[in-house]
Amino acid sequence: MSFGAVITTFTGAFIFPFLIRLCWGKMCDSWGPIGGWMAAGFIVGTAWTLNHGVGFMVQSGPAWIDMAWAAGVGLFVASAASGDDVGKGLVNALFAIIGGVLGGFILSCLG
Description:
With about 110 residues, the protein is an all-alpha fold.
């Protein structure tokens, strides 16, 4: 992977959790439950378009996770850096890993 590809991949991976941390809660607070749906559409859609449509993220080999991994790691690091409860974040990360493994297993059984 070239140096430029590393930089764009890192940038694409940074943008997604940054937008989640910056906008999602404010949209939910301002617009209630519909704000969560709008945040999901705007934030995830914009990040996906930048990462996969424009091509910020460069992937090699089969990729099971990309944006989800970036969001999980980015939000965990942001929570730890801001002084939030790291233990709760580790429990959430553990269950996310279990869910991802289970989802991957189910998908591998289908085809």
